[in-house]
Records
---
Amino acid sequence: MGHGGRILHFIDGRETPSADGRLFDNIAPATNEVVSEVARGGPAEVERAVAAARAALAGSWSGTTTEERAALLDRAADLIELRGEELARIESRDTGKTLAMASTVDIPRAIANFRFFAGAIRHEETGFHHMGSALNYTLRKPVGVVGLISPWNLPLYLLSWKTAPALAMGNAVVAKPSELTPGTASILAEILFEAGFPAGVFNVVHGFGPEAGQALVEHEDVLAISFTGGTGTGRRVGVAAAPLFKKLSLELGGKNPTIIFADAGFDAAVDSALRASFLNQGQICLCGSRLLVERPIHDRFVEKLVSLTKELVIGDPAAPDTFLGSLVSHGHRDKVESYVALAREEGGEVRCGGTRPDLPAPFDQGAFLTPAIITGLPAGCKTATEEIFGPVVTVHPFDDEAQALAMANGVDYGLSASLFTRDLDRAHRVAAALQTGLVWVNTWLLRDLRTPFGGVKGSGLGREGGKWSLDFFSETQNICIRLSEASE
Ligand code: NAP
């Protein structure tokens, strides 16, 4: 962060203001205080950052070996770990999430992402295809300058999920973090530079999506875009990138079902559904915002879920017993609240929450909303099919497997699902029939970084994670060598 509480762009190894000096306010949503000013970038800053990235690719960066890049990634992980407390504090301040969540999930997972991709390239094997008369081998090359656009819900975690593989494969990066959560991206830029990545290899341009983000997507020298964000924005990114034939990875929204069969371990299923509903204030793309519960246990399940939800502590994000901090902004709270009102209009019963809690100063000014559980809605209504991305869930009874699947698949999204049953055959059958990129059985949010991550339908395009990330952030080239004319 620059002097006087200013967060500047990071271009070519230096903190850089916008050419026209424009700034915008960074607001802590838990208190509604302005905590810093942020440089507001646009096409001019994207141009400078892309030029710096191109220069880095033309310089020493392109000559680095796999082992050198892996060592740099490990060093970056060490430095993030060293500054872990500071990063967690800033993440909690910018997002309103609890400090506990930032320190036990966001920052450790950012560290893990760098260590994981350091290991991944050390152990990577590329293709080799022998034909008898010829042999083929596959080279992996960096794509070039890649643009990384990330959302506000898990700011450093998701940016590092893209940055680590992009750098591992030898690309140069221009990142555009969410305007709502600029703090940790700038610190990451400092850390990567300190770790030894050459100037221009990792650049950050702050600003608003339609200005800085759009300019990055439209820049003809940016050859790949990895975007995580909402489905509507993803569509705009796709429309801008497609005519330029950019590589495109889109990780978009979700309306994920949690399916609970009557034979499930009841208490474990309720606990898991509770976390899936409200962790990070329900602002995780993988949150289970639709609970489909087999009718014989529906009422008991709702009763237990409501009673556990009422016990969740909401308020000061830094207090150790707080489970729910504030939403990311007042504007976002308005949007989430409007869905609670819509649910009532659509005939739903709000069983708990959906209100602004009575909190002491300074949190009385914050964007808090108590966690809401809604029953009695038809599964096809707007509240139950549109992504709300907040602490609001709907619960729906079902009578058999076919109905559960029809409800689970009856939305425009297809990111993840979790199902709870003790019947192994059913678990396999239902999991395979779900139209989602990820399925959890008897758990939620258990992640192995080697596995493919991404969604179908309106939840996105492509996969990231493990070798899928390495594929996305590289161009493969096949080289075929004829061995001898005689053997043809
Ligand atoms: P968003 O509004 O779509 O923004 C995502 C990013 O795109 C931000 O950096 C945003 O900048 C930028 N942006 C906005 N308009 C743009 C444009 N025209 N061109 C280029 N970039 C543009 O999403 P969000 O509200 O930050 O995040 C919540 C959404 O992300 C939810 O839908 C959630 O499901 C999804 N998400 C998906 C995953 C996944 O892995 N599938 C993970 C996490 C979140 P500004 O902030 O300045 O607008």
---
Amino acid sequence: MGETKDLDLWTTSPAISLRVRDGFQLESVDRAATVGWPGSKKEGNKARKERGDLLDELQERLIAEARSGQKRRVLLVLQGMDTAGKGSLINKVAGMVDPQGVEISSFGVPTEEEASHDFLWRIEKRLPKPGMIGIFDRSHYEDVLVQKVENLAPPEEIERRYGAINDFETSLVDDGVTVIKIALLISYQEQGYRLLRRLARRDKHWKYSPSDVATREKWSAYDAAYQAMFERTSTDYAPWYAVPADNKWYARLAVTEILTQELAKMAPRWPEMDWDVEAEAKKVLETIPAIAARAAQKPLEKQAAKVAEESKIYREEVFDAVRDDATRDGGDRVANV
Ligand code: AMP
Ligand code: MG
């Protein structure tokens, strides 16, 4: 059992409560809710930062693992209407881990070249490399969302894409990718306020596009496209999480928790080295004159053994605690080693 952390106030893990299962109805989601989190915003932000430390270690283990030939990686897909908070979520979540372990890709209106290929062409080029956390700011799902609502592709092509996406994600999972799909759900009213706030700030104008209003006017058509997307593409191997996002702090907290738990379930391990720690420690100790000179009182062998022993216990306990938490909290997805 993992130790209970003071700041872990979750009553139900968001990995369970926000997961899109059969029978999911988008219209019954309260987008201002803080599902499973009875604590305050302040406590939420604190808890997220605390989780960040673990996330950071898990990610480093994943990178280390890849060095020794493992292919595992994570793909975090973010979808949401304009102002849903994709950008600031990336800023906060990616900011908690080593930037060298994160690959962020944004997908906008397809270029001429991209449009001349199958819709997955540009996506495949941006898949995370082994050991990395890939974050998609919009994704192949735009091809069944905006393209459906705006009739940018014929209905039978949209229909084909749901299946193509499931096949594609199956192949990703088989190839060692943990696929986590996050839909940031804001309310119509909240989006109105956020767009106004953008307009009221010179430094936010670059994020605004006059077409945002036209998109907003099609709100219910987008809701319908999201509902269809959830029904057709939330699978056991690559589930969607419907995250209420009117409270930005809650969305960040929930996504951090889901991501950390998925990484913990992957259980990345520090790789075994093909050299002997104790022997190497002794060699290094011999090169440090101050230590080598005192070797008569404190034999180098003993010091080397101590170094080797310390390396074994380093943070293993912390790791086991998180993994136990994540497995206990369930999710039916197991590590695909
Ligand atoms: P933003 O994320 O606000 O910079 O805007 C990117 C824009 O590109 C959004 O309006 C998206 O709907 C649009 N977009 C992204 N992918 C596609 C796609 N496959 N087809 C059409 N529009 C897209
Ligand atoms: Mg935009």
